[in-house]
């Protein structure tokens, strides 16, 4: 399958520690076209480390190996650091969970967006400002001119995450990695932000990797779902087929969540089996 | 689950066990982890070695010193340069400087131990009470602290010694009085960080009294940063003690206090440099030892790194 | 029947900010009552006001017919206990599980700690191997079990639960929710539970109150929620959000 936006084959991330090597990701493979792919797993499943490895944001002490890690035919692992940085933000972008930690607190939101744009494209200041305002409007911020001059602490969580999306999408990336982009937000705000993300991804024909612990959210949002457990992919399936998941872990994960109207006492719990991690 | 025997697993595994079987095993395991973090820092181990050497020398001064520290040979051995008989030379009273430096370690140790025992608890209590109580208590306690902090340490210590009269005990009291305010500040800062945490709230809704919360739940969180700070301050305390001695306000002659020794050597500093330089070297080495130790303790005791 | 817990027109003010604007709630003995809302709705503040951790500006709180004063006495804490949201923050980082469970017994001068601690650990499904561990040696779910054991060791009749599972993975959440239901059945406890997750509240509680901006939006029964028999738009939006993302067009 060539012509894919992203090819990941046998990706491994290892952390050497004093007590031995921790294998966070143990041979993950998947490919991504211009589609929405969800990576689901519980804490410690290696889902976030997979996203970071693709972005090249893994802790420098860790060791990242893969048989293949290609973005649009470019081998990411052999790419010099400078070119990889240039790729990041320009063609590949990432949204993190909490905008509080990923926006610079002492620079206004507008300037951060303008600077992101100007590091990747040669545009005049005035044009950059215009485009930043357009982008803020595109993430449905009602008064872009006012928000442009605000600092990250002056906006709500939902607004901050929209600003973050605006900043990440301003340079027109082809691949977007979103790591729990809405988990820090209130449920009602969550859906607004997801709707914005959904529209932009569709309009711009981007590939999206959506990393989340929330299986139900991912299945309602993505085209395809990769389920991870203990650093491995246990199952890959189209989101619409989730109800027919084969792997007991996927089934268990779906089953153990309380649902409104389903009167199940006690809730079914996940009986973890050692062979899942093998 | 049956408890595995110590002899089967060896001490290391027993200490590092993720499921300790008793209170003491849990405590020892934790101490062992701290020790491992500490020994990973080689400079810190050197610092610890220096301090242990100081303690050793102080304890066995009577056996180690080749001559008397107070009675010298006025006729035949005045101001001799270092040689095989007198490794550090002799002073203007004909006393062996090495012996005086060795006995002086007792005074140094005496000063720092007493200062630490007086100043650290005062600072800890003032800081945690101020931080936990808040409001007026906090305002009053911290303004008192500010008043003490507003004066340079040595000047304030000088004033106290001048009022109390010269002598090593009064010097210790003066240094202790001037060195608790930074500890109070640190303890208060740590207290403010933990007092709104859920684990303190959890003790509050058990109905525990404020005194119990401070003593048993807040103080343990402050102690490690305080130990680090006190250790790092030791060098400064030695120097202030020496400074008071140098000015004639600390230990009185013929006590072999290092600062006083430097003071008496300053008259000959150009021609008989060793009289002032040898005790100076001792101060330098011990101060360095405490600084290295403090740095190592900071890494080893940092509560934020205790998870890994 | 006197209410297990009765809060009337409770106002909480932090530095001019009205976090709670006159909220009333009545919880019957043996009932499990839910408080749902988003951040800033005041749901946790109401819980903390009852526990005595937030300053009550006006209004009254009554526990089994006894009005509470400004200061809670020890008897109150033997009746009402609380489990916090973040299991990583609610256990003292320098104390072993053993020490954590000993503390409430020591505070209230209860002897026989050896058997009580062993029984408490057993009740929350932790083997004795956990007794001398520090909290950093426990997983999130195990920590929350310890927190529940600590709350139960004083044998309270009312448990305040502040988002007890929102920091946990879904599979661990199921285990902890089952445990909470189990101890409630065994000990005939009254629960007042806060969550942002309607499904969790619907699963755990018979009645609930939806809150927004420090005020009550409406009170419902779990059956109302299932049949979407709700009066307020805000509740409807929450319900819709709990069903996941729906693509328009």
UniProtKB/TrEMBL annotation, chain A:
Transmembrane segments: none annotated. The lineage of its organism: Bacteria, Pseudomonadati, Pseudomonadota, Alphaproteobacteria, Hyphomicrobiales. One of its GO terms (molecular function) is ATP binding. This is ABC transporter ATP-binding protein. It comes from Mesorhizobium retamae. It holds the Pfam family ABC_tran. Its main location: membrane. It is a peripheral membrane protein. It is found in: Cell inner membrane. CDD domains: ABC_NikE_OppD_transporters. Keywords: ATP-binding, Cell membrane, Membrane, Nucleotide-binding, Transport. Belongs to the ABC transporter superfamily.
UniProtKB/TrEMBL annotation, chain B:
Its main location: membrane. InterPro entries: ABC_transport_permease, BP-dependent_transpt_permease, MetI-like, MetI-like_sf, OppC_N. Keywords: Cell membrane, Membrane, Peptide transport, Protein transport, Transmembrane, Transmembrane helix, Transport. It comes from the Bacteria. Residues 105-294 form the ABC transmembrane type-1 domain. The chain crosses the membrane at residues 43-65, 107-134, 154-178, 226-252, 272-294. It is found in: Cell membrane. It is a multi-pass membrane protein. CDD domains: TM_PBP2. Belongs to the binding-protein-dependent transport system permease family. OppBC subfamily. This is ABC transporter permease. It comes from Mesorhizobium retamae.
TrEMBL record, chain C:
One of its GO terms (molecular function) is ATP binding. SUPFAM superfamilies: P-loop containing nucleoside triphosphate hydrolases (SSF52540). Pfam families: ABC_tran (PF00005). Residues 5-238 form the ABC transporter domain. It comes from the Bacteria. The keyword Nucleotide-binding applies. CDD domains: ABC_NikE_OppD_transporters. Keywords: ATP-binding, Nucleotide-binding, Transport. PANTHER family: D,D-DIPEPTIDE TRANSPORT ATP-BINDING PROTEIN DDPF-RELATED (PTHR43776:SF7), TRANSPORT ATP-BINDING PROTEIN (PTHR43776). Belongs to the ABC transporter superfamily. This is ABC transporter ATP-binding protein. It comes from Mesorhizobium retamae.
């Amino acid at each position: 399958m060539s012509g894919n936006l992203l090819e990941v084959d046998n990706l491994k991330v290892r952390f050497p520690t004093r007590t031995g090597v921790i294998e966070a990701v143990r041979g993950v493979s998947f490919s991504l076209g211009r589609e929405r792919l969800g990576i689901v797993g519980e804490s410690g499943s290696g889902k976030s480390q997979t996203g970071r490895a693709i972005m090249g944001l893994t802790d420098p002490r860790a060791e990242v190996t893969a048989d293949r890690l290609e973005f649009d035919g470019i081998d990411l692992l052999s790419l010099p650091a400078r070119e990889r940085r240039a790729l990041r933000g320009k063609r590949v972008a990432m949204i993190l969970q909490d905008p509080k930690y990923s926006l610079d607190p002492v620079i206004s939101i507008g300037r951060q967006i303008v600077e992101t744009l100007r590091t990747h494209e040669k545009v005049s200041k005035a044009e950059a400002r215009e485009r930043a305002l357009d982008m803020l409007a595109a993430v449905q911020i009602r008064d872009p001119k006012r928000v442009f001059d605000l600092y990250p602490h002056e906006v709500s969580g939902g607004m901050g995450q929209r600003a973050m999306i605006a900043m990440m999408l301003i340079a027109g990336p082809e691949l977007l990695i979103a790591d729990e982009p809405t988990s820090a937000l209130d449920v009602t705000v969550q859906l607004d932000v997801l709707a914005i993300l959904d529209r932009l991804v569709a309009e711009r024909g981007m590939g999206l990797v959506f990393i989340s612990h929330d299986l139900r959210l991912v299945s309602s949002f993505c085209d395809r779902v990769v389920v991870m457990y203990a650093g491995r992919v246990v199952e890959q399936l189209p989101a619409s087929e989730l109800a027919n998941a084969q792997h007991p872990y996927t089934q268990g994960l779906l089953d153990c969540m309380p649902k409104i109207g389903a009167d199940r006492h006690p809730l079914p719990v996940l009986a973890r089996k050692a062979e899942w991690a093998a | 689950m049956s408890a595995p025997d110590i002899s089967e697993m060896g001490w290391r595994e027993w200490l590092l066990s993720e499921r300790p079987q008793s209170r003491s095993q849990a405590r020892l395991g934790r101490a062992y982890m701290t020790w491992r973090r500490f020994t990973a820092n080689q400079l810190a181990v050197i610092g610890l070695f220096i301090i242990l050497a100081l303690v050793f020398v102080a304890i066995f001064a009577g056996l180690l010193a080749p001559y008397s520290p107070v009675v010298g040979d006025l006729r035949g051995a005045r101001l001799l340069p270092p040689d095989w008989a007198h490794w550090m030379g002799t002073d203007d009273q004909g006393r062996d400087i090495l012996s005086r430096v060795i006995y002086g370690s007792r005074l140094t140790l005496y000063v720092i131990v007493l200062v630490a025992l007086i100043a650290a608890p005062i600072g800890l209590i003032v800081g945690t009470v101020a931080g936990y109580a808040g409001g007026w208590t906090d305002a009053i306690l911290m303004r008192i602290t500010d008043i003490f902090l507003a004066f340079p340490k040595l000047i304030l210590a000088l004033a106290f010694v001048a009022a109390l009269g010269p002598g090593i005990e009064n010097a210790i009291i003066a240094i202790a009085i001037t060195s608790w305010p930074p500890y109070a500040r640190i303890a208060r800062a740590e207290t403010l960080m933990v007092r709104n945490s859920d684990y303190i709230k959890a003790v509050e809704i058990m109905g525990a009294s404020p005194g119990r919360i401070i003593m048993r739940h807040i103080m343990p969180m402050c102690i490690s940063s305080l130990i680090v700070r006190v250790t790092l301050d030791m060098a400064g305390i030695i120097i202030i003690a020496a400074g008071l001695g140098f000015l004639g306000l600390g230990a009185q002659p013929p006590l072999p206090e290092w600062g006083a020794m430097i003071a008496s050597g300053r008259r000959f500093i150009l021609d008989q440099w060793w009289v002032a330089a040898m005790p100076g070297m001792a101060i330098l080495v011990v101060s360095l030892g405490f600084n290295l130790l403090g740095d190592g303790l900071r890494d080893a005791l940092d509560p934020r790194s205790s998870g890994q | 029947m006197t209410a297990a817990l009765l809060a009337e027109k409770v106002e909480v003010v932090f530095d001019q900010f009205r976090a709670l604007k006159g909220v009333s709630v009545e919880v019957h003995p043996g009932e499990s009552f839910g408080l749902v809302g988003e951040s800033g709705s005041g749901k946790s503040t109401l819980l903390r006001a009852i526990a005595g951790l937030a300053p009550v500006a006006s209004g009254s709180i009554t526990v089994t017919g006894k009005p509470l004063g400004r200061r809670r006495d020890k008897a109150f804490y033997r009746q009402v206990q609380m489990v916090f949201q973040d299991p990583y923050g609610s256990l003292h980082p320098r104390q072993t599980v053993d020490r954590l469970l000993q503390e409430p017994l020591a505070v209230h001068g209860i002897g026989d700690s050896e058997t009580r601690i062993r029984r408490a650990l057993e009740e929350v499904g932790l083997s004795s191997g956990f007794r001398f561990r520090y909290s950093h040696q426990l997983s999130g779910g195990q920590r929350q079990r310890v927190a529940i054991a600590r709350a139960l060791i004083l044998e309270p009749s009312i448990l305040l639960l502040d988002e007890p599972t929102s920091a946990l993975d879904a599979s661990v959440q199921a285990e902890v929710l089952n445990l909470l239901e189990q101890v409630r059945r065994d000990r005939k406890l009254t629960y007042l539970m806060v969550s942002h997750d309607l499904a969790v509240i619907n699963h755990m509680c018979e009645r609930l109150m939806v809150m927004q901006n420090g005020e009550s939006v409406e009170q419902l029964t779990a059956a109302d929620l299932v049949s979407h028999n709700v009066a307020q738009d805000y509740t409807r939006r929450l319900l819709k959000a709990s069903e996941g993302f729906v693509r328009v067009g």
